[in-house]
Amino acid sequence: MALVCTTASVPDGEKLAYWRDALGRALVPMAVTARGDGPFSGRVSTDRLGWLRVSTVEADAQRTSRTAAHIARSAADYVAVAVQTAGTATLLQDGRRALVGESDLMVYDTARPYSLDCPRRFSALVVHMPRRAVGLPEEDLRRVTGTAVAGTDGLGALLASFLTTLTSSVPPCSPAVAARLASSAVDLFATLVNERTAGDGPPEEDPHHHLVPRIRDHIDRRLGDPELSPQSVAAAHHISVRYLHRLFEEEGVTVGRLIRRRRLEECARELSLRGPSAPTVSAVAQRWGFANPAHFSRVFRTAYGLSPREWRGAGARLPLAG
């Protein structure tokens, strides 16, 4: 359910303080200074779509700034993409000054100080993407933060239209559909960043490849969980299953097969142990996530050419599972 905060019923002398707190809860903590003389007026609505936080802001002229002190007290970092739907703004971050007009997009990083100056009443759509979900290299993010992107043509127009539609037209949907929509938004943003940073320096490897070792580590630490699957791995890393499979295309193995291979390797290693304290075949299978003994026996024989009991009896040593 969306969180909606408005100054409409707040006493005039308390409106600005209320607004500062409302922005801190809906967006991120920041300092707020009103630029007008009369009672301040503002409204902010925020909701979740998958792992995205999507907000709309409409307010009188103001200046907001996020300082190192605010950042130190924050538990999460986001990459923010805002669509200026009315009015203008000036964004300052990383030594850059971006003038943002109506329909333009702006990009900033909540993990670094920034300020945003809106000289008259304005409205904006703000999408916060968790940094780990974006997955772009730090150097690429720093090339686009503190910048404005025209929202009238090219990828900028496509992203602005998609984000606006997410806010205004998407009906309530299941968590799975919400996750796919969030993944699409992140992919569009990453494509925009790649386009804007192409040619700025030497070619970079795929900006998401750093996720692969993290995902492999996640799998290794959860091999004993029978529920471990491509779906659970994707959800844990805030990406879609489709994108997870794309990440592993160059690894030469699907995620499902990698999980099975790593489980079999650990089972084969344990079954090679000798002595009175050596675990039973069924105990080994259960410890490494195989809930069905018959299924375990079949896949083990397919991988190693021997049943688990034959492997133990032969005192085999661990080859690479296929």
From TrEMBL:
The keyword Repressor does not apply. It comes from the Bacteria. GO terms for molecular function: DNA-binding transcription factor activity; sequence-specific DNA binding. Keywords: DNA-binding, Transcription, Transcription regulation. Residues 213-314 form the HTH araC/xylS-type domain. SMART domains: HTH_ARAC (SM00342). InterPro entries: AraC-bd_2, AraC_XylS_family_regulators, Homeodomain-like_sf, HTH_AraC, Tscrpt_reg_AraC-type_HTH. PANTHER family: ARAC SUBFAMILY (PTHR46796:SF6), HTH-TYPE TRANSCRIPTIONAL ACTIVATOR RHAS-RELATED (PTHR46796). This is AraC family transcriptional regulator. It comes from Streptomyces phaeofaciens. The lineage of its organism: Bacteria, Bacillati, Actinomycetota, Actinomycetes, Kitasatosporales.
